[in-house]
Q: What sequence folds into this?
């Protein structure tokens, strides 16, 4: 029996290793997707745009990561993080944080105020799948993703999950992380409950070379505590119909530490941010033969509270500064989409989305609304088992204003028959609406802003090969170019506050290389995967040319960024090495030799060792991890302290 | 197996160049006459810097504080003064004052634990006052030992610019943030007992003050947030605190600031988008600019005391390095040099 279980686990791992082979190809509308089905999909569909998925092995091994940590280590997306538990945002293909759309079961969780997602509030363990849609391909899901989108999905078919799963981590700096999931099912009904709790004093020591005299110090006021749960119910109404309900609720409390230069400030500063959100989705799916119809509704609610207080130095009851900022957003959303496959390789795709957002904020004058209607229709055709043509057009009306059409055209071509070598190219236009802060922030908001417009094109090659059935290699190379006009930037006005304007014309171009290799030899399994991104993002507007800063890399976007994951297991032992290199980043638009203009590159390595015990009813796994094993002192953001070497122990339990 | 080790080794090698060595300190010599330009940097970013320009050789040293000390100046450098061969640099949002050896910029000590320090007025070797944007006190410090020795209650008001006349200090209540009273007073502090004794009612937002050759106090007020009052320039008799002159600006929406005076104490200069000059004996505000701003985004102004050259900073877009434009006594452009982000204060060393 144990032998059989081992074989199953082994195959799961093997196929987990195969998942990257679908990189750049169709993982299109695959609600029932699990390990064994992927191979089939690979052969039937080829996309013209790049789409990848974080593979299951990695997802399981790093389930206590937040989404920012996960993408930083396993994708070419650059994550700008202020430290563990602090704000973390994405720069996808050299774009701004608001140009990455994060979709949870198709619904954007980007804040309508800021336009971006705080990735440290997204616990990876809450989702079955984490996928990425690069560049223009995002139009299949949403508009506005000028860089790309992150797809967080919960499968409604839960047959593969253990009854109970517990993951408990203890780490340096008083860090605790608990993730629990409970899965119950009858023939036609299933319930999945996931909960997480994470807290950390985060009081690491660091060498503060931001003050005189420089010395080792303890990080102050950086603790955080987040907790939440995600509940999903799924009913198989008929063999072809399924109803599902999901509710994601989370409470986040973080203190905000001073920057390294400000640790001697008086006035007993107290600064924190508390957030609560509830995101709920009700969905109905009809799937029969080659037809698929899905109708979903969602209600999102978020409360955010930022607080800053300083008092006189000798009397902590005598308040001298107080910022007490409260923002409340509510959203109602509806989506319907119909996918139909026809004979001779034709496939159509039609959908209608309705979004309603309401914001109450003491930074706005009055309640602000945004209503968006979006319609899209797509056509796909596979010719001679070789050539795929993709065409999509999206049309959007926001607050009564019609945006110009957003089209996408793409081609995928299988170069050699029966070999997995594909070339692809896409051309698209996309729009990103100004955020509600851009429009209504008081003071400074500018209601006359135009949407940001992006023209994008990319070219890619994807190659998959298996050697002697036991080893698999997947390679993907993409090159892209996009031109974004009316890029919004905030600049100081004559009245001392900042105001946003459609200033910049930003060009982004880059290359992404992804290599994955995995295989087995007797009791050994190995996996090597790496991502590298070269990104060049510059402002080529007339203003930039006049002022002489065209051609300079925009701030906090590294030209070079890469990661590497080496993993090996022997029977129930495993060892993994995670390596992330972040290249030099500029912090201002000054010439390169200016003071504090650039932050040096840094290289971080995490090493982990694991052992599994597989028993009849229960599996145990113990993991020990060294983060930043070479104790690198670095700054991701100028004068923000980061921890050195630290440790983590994780115990996992699966009740079958 | 062996090839895997090889791959790892290769990767390690490829990344081994990523680590940068610690920067070496660069010695500096600050020979007078010259000017220290304090660059504020961006709020909460910690990129304030110090630019030195020596007049003898017209040499510019940027990032002088960092070059010498290998530590950033901090978050929003606001003010600098020189006393007993020591430079005192007030770093507002870092809540401290760095004290350096003025001749080479090396670190001597710091005065810390301040809430939001703005300016430092040194009265004697053992007594100095620190104004504060938020705290409703002046902090009393010892400029020799760098210790905080006491506080002067300002009766619920914040403080900014300070001028000592006789044994009294005039303190401008510029900011009205988190303050119950309107910010329209100049407070008078007695040095004998270190107490607030009196105040002068002016227009809202008194932002800068100078003393002329006759010992009169000039106060420039910008009219409050959103210009609720008309900006005005005042002349005060410091002995009875009476208002001797009041000049209202013709446009309510103007934003005059950075009042300065030449070494002789006769010519006033201020910014109101452009640079304006006014003699202390004039009967009205100047109607024509002394130096047109043109394309420049003028931010602060300083007058070289010995030869009355004008130093005006242009902050461009506030995020790139600003420039300092130098004009001679007749307002003709002489030359310009690059400083850091938001050059906000000139401290002349002579």
A:
């Amino acid at each position: 029996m144990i032998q059989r279980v081992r074989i199953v686990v082994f195959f799961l791992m093997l196929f987990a290793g195969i998942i990257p082979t679908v990189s750049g190809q169709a993982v299109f509308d695959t609600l029932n997707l699990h390990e064994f089905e992927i191979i089939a999909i690979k052969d039937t569909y080829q996309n013209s745009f790049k789409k990848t998925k974080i593979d299951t092995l990695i997802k399981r091994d790093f389930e206590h990561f937040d989404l920012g940590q996960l993408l930083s280590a396993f994708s070419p997306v650059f994550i700008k993080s202020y430290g563990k538990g602090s704000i973390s945002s994405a720069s996808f293909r050299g774009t701004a944080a608001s140009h990455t759309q994060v979709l949870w079961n198709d619904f954007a969780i980007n804040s309508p105020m800021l336009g971006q997602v705080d990735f440290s509030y997204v616990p990876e363990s809450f989702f079955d799948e984490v996928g990425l849609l690069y560049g223009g391909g995002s139009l299949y899901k949403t508009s506005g993703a000028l860089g790309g989108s992150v797809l967080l999905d919960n499968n409604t078919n839960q047959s593969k999950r253990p009854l109970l799963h517990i993951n408990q981590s203890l780490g340096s700096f008083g860090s605790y992380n608990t993730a629990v999931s409970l899965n119950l099912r009858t023939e036609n009904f299933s319930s999945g409950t996931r909960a997480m709790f994470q807290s950390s004093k985060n009081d690491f020591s660091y060498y503060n070379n931001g003050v005189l005299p420089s010395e080792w110090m303890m990080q102050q006021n950086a603790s955080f505590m987040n907790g939440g749960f995600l509940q999903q119910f799924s009913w198989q109404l008929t063999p072809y119909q399924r109803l599902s309900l999901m509710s994601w609720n989370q409470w986040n409390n973080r203190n905000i530490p001073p920057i390294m230069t400000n640790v001697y400030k008086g006035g007993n500063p107290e600064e924190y941010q508390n957030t609560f959100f509830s995101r709920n989705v009700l969905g109905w799916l009809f799937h029969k033969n080659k037809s698929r119809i899905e109708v979903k509704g969602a209600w999102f609610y978020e409360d955010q509270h930022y607080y800053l207080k300083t008092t006189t130095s000798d009397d902590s009851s005598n308040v001298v500064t107080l910022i007490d900022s409260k923002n409340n957003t509510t959203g109602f959303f509806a989506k319907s989409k119909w996918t139909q496959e026809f004979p001779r390789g034709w496939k159509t795709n039609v959908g209608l989305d309705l979004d309603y957002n309401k914001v109450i904020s003491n930074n706005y004058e009055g309640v602000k609304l945004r209503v968006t209607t979006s319609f899209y229709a797509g056509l796909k055709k596979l010719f001679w088992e070789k050539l795929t043509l993709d065409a999509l057009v999206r049309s959007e009306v926001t607050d009564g204003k019609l945006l110009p059409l957003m089209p996408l055209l793409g081609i995928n071509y299988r170069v050699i028959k029966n070999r997995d070598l594909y070339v692809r190219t896409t051309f698209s236009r996309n729009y990103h609406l100004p955020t509600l802060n851009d429009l209504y922030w008081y003071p400074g908001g500018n209601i006359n802003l135009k949407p940001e417009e992006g023209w994008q094109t990319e070219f890619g090659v994807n190659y998959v090969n298996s050697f002697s059935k036991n080893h698999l290699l997947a390679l993907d190379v993409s090159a892209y170019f996009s031109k974004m006009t009316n890029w919004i930037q905030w600049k100081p006005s004559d009245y001392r506050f900042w105001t946003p304007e459609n200033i910049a014309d930003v060009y982004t171009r880059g290359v992404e290389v992804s290599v994955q290799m995995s295989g087995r030899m007797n009791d050994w399994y190995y996996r090597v995967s790496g991502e590298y991104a070269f990104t060049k993002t510059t402002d080529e507007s007339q203003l930039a040319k006049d002022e002489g800063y065209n051609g300079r890399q925009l701030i906090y976007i590294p030209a070079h960024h890469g990661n590497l994951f080496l993993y090996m297991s022997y029977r129930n032992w495993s060892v993994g090495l995670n390596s992330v290199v972040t290249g030099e980043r500029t912090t201002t638009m000054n010439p390169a030799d200016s003071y504090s203009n650039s932050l040096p590159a840094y290289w971080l390595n995490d090493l982990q060792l694991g052992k599994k015990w597989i028993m009849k009813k229960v599996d145990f796994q113990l993991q020990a991890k060294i983060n930043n094993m070479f104790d690198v002192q670095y700054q991701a953001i100028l004068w923000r302290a980061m921890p050195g070497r630290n440790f983590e122990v994780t115990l996992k339990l699966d009740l079958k | 197996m062996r090839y895997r080790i090889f791959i790892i080794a290769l990767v390690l090698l490829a990344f081994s160049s990523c680590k940068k060595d610690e920067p070496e300190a660069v010695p500096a010599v600050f020979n007078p006459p010259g000017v220290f330009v304090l660059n504020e940097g961006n709020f909460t970013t910690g990129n304030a810097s110090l630019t030195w320009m020596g007049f003898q050789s017209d040499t510019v040293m940027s990032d002088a504080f960092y070059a010498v000390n290998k530590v950033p100046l901090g978050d929003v450098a606001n003010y600098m003064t020189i006393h007993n061969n020591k430079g005192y640099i007030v770093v507002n949002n870092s809540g401290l004052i760095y004290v350096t050896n003025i001749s080479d910029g090396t670190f001597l000590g710091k005065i810390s634990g301040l809430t939001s320090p703005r300016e430092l007025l040194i009265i004697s070797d053992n007594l100095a006052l620190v104004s504060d944007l938020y705290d409703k006190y002046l902090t009393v410090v010892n400029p020799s030992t760098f210790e905080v020795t006491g506080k002067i209650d300002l009766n619920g008001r914040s403080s900014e610019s300070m001028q000592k006349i006789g044994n009294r200090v005039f303190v401008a209540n510029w900011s009205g943030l988190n303050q119950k009273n309107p910010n329209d007073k100049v407070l008078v502090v007695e040095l004998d007992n270190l107490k607030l004794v009196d105040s002068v009612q002016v227009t809202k937002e008194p932002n800068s003050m100078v003393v002329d050759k006759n010992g009169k106090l000039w106060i420039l007020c910008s009219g409050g947030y959103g210009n609720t009052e008309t900006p005005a320039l005042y002349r005060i008799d410091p002995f009875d605190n009476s208002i001797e002159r009041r000049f209202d600006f013709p446009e309510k929406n103007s934003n005059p600031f950075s009042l300065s005076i030449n070494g002789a104490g006769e010519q006033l200069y201020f910014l109101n988008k452009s640079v304006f000059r006014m003699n202390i004996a004039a009967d009205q505000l100047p109607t024509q600019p002394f130096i047109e701003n043109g394309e420049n985004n003028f931010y602060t102004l300083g007058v070289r005391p010995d030869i009355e050259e004008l130093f005006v900073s242009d902050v461009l877009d506030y995020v790139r390095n600003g420039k300092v434009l130098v004009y001679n006594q007749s307002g003709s452009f002489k030359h310009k040099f690059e400083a850091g982000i938001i050059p906000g204060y000139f401290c002349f060393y002579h």
Remarks:
- Chain A has a mean pLDDT of 88.
- The two ends of chain A are 14 Å apart (CA to CA).
- Residues 369 and 550 of chain A are 36 Å apart (CA to CA).
- DSSP finds six helices and 34 strands in chain A.
